[in-house]
Amino acid sequence: MTPFAVATALMDSLSGRGGEEQAGPVECRVRVPATTTNFGPGFDTFGAALRLYNWIVLRVGGSEPAGPPHPMVQEAAAAYARAAGSSSPPFECTISGDVPCARGLGSSATVRAGVLVGLNEVRGRPLSREQLVALGSELEGHPDNVAAAILGGFTISTGGGQTRVPLGSRLEFVAFVPEMEMETKWARSVLPQAVSLPDAVWNLQRAARIAAAICLRRYEELRGLFEDRWHEPARVERIPGWEQIKKSAYEAGALGFYLSGAGSTLMALADGRGAEVAEAMTRVASSAGLTGSCLQVKAENRGAKAWVRHLPRRVVHGGRKHVS
Ligand SMILES: Nc1ncnc2c1ncn2[C@@H]1O[C@H](COP(=O)(O)OP(=O)(O)OP(=O)(O)O)[C@@H](O)[C@H]1O
Ligand SMILES: N[C@@H](CCO)C(=O)O
Which intervals hold domain GHMP kinase N-terminal (predicted)? Predict the structure, then answer.
């Protein structure tokens, strides 16, 4: 059954049309990738999706949900309903997966993107992916994570739109994920509210070259472009061993090194030397007293992906309806 047919059947079911042919509940499973953002000087602009996922599962039209969904889920559903022009039927939502929370890998974006993509899928896709990115960006307060999570690949976002390019399979992301959490709310509260002209020019020049090198797949030109003068200095004060870990990653052959999103993950980019970079970062983090674990992961070019399943439908026996 196509998503549109599922949606039509679901709406018939919810409106009581369809008699004995009524559809049962619908389950939509959405796989949403983790995201790494900023890439040093590209604050709130650059994002990339990673092959590390959360699963957001929506069950629409079944029995009454056991309790209210997570506030982030409720907010996303309300925003979707406003944009799509009708209220959502009650649904249950479960969140699971491998994306760690409050580590700068876009966990909150996976939840918001998953709800938006899932509800849209169940409704027969009345909104475009770009409209979903715009909605998710409003909910997040910045567009970089949600654009990459929904569209996949490398994204350059302005809030009003984004440019997306696929990433090559030879590029590796080496993430040292500390046990220590860093909440985005805190990490944004310590940002300087003004930057000097030389620092603005410094970041702009490097961000433009990073975008060009990635779009042209000239990854070797990324070396030396990741030094940020806007957001990292205030944030990394909380990360023991930051400078030493960065130095060790570059010495092991990293192309770039930056604070992923709002932290706390320290991210290196590598092209064929990921294992050496991971080993160096882990060793130096340990001697600096930063506990955590290291992941080597490739980019995900596909973005959020949804599967809709029609659960056993209602059966009418002697005028009484049962939901299996
Ligand atoms: N998977 C999740 N399930 C439930 N709540 C979540 C989940 N992910 C994030 N949250 C909620 O969102 C809050 C904010 O997440 P936050 O933005 O700090 O982390 P993040 O999205 O992992 O990091 P970043 O945005 O820097 O990539 C968390 O403290 C938590 O309340
Ligand atoms: N660009 C955002 C990502 C965090 O979610 C920040 O650095 O605050």
Answer: 73-153
User: In terms of Cα–Cα distance, which of 94, 104, 204 is closest to 145?
Assistant: 104
Question: Which residue's CA is the closest to the ligand 1 atom numbered 6?
Answer: 108
Q: How far is residue 308 CA from its own chain's centroid?
A: 21
Which amino acid residue places its CA nearest to atom 1 of ligand 2? 44
| Helix (H), strand (E), coil (C) string for 213-269 | HHHCCCHHHHCCCCCCCCCHHHHHCCCCCHHHHHHHHHHCCCCEEEECCCCCCEEEE
Q: Per-residue pLDDT for the chain (324 aa), expressed as one digit of tens each? A: 434 333 433 443 333 333 344 467 899 999 999 999 999 999 999 999 999 999 999 998 877 667 778 999 999 999 999 999 977 778 899 999 999 999 999 999 999 999 999 999 999 999 999 999 999 999 999 999 999 999 999 999 998 899 999 999 999 999 999 999 999 999 999 999 999 999 999 999 999 999 999 999 999 999 999 999 999 999 999 999 999 999 999 999 999 999 999 999 999 999 999 999 999 999 999 999 999 999 999 999 999 999 999 887 655 454 343 333
- The fold of 1-167+300-324 is Ribosomal Protein S5; domain 2 (3.30.230)
Q: Which ligand is nearest to the CA of 143?
A: 2
Closest protein CA for atom 6 of ligand 2: 262
**Token pair belonging to 5:** 């047919």
Q: Do domains 1-167+300-324 and 169-298 have the same CATH topology?
A: no
| Residue among 145, 153, 86 at smallest CA distance from 120 | 86
CATH architecture of 169-298: 2-Layer Sandwich (3.30)
Ligand nearest to the CA of 265: 1
Q: What is the identity of the amino acid at 167?
A: L
Domain segments of the chain as ranges? 1-167+300-324, 169-298
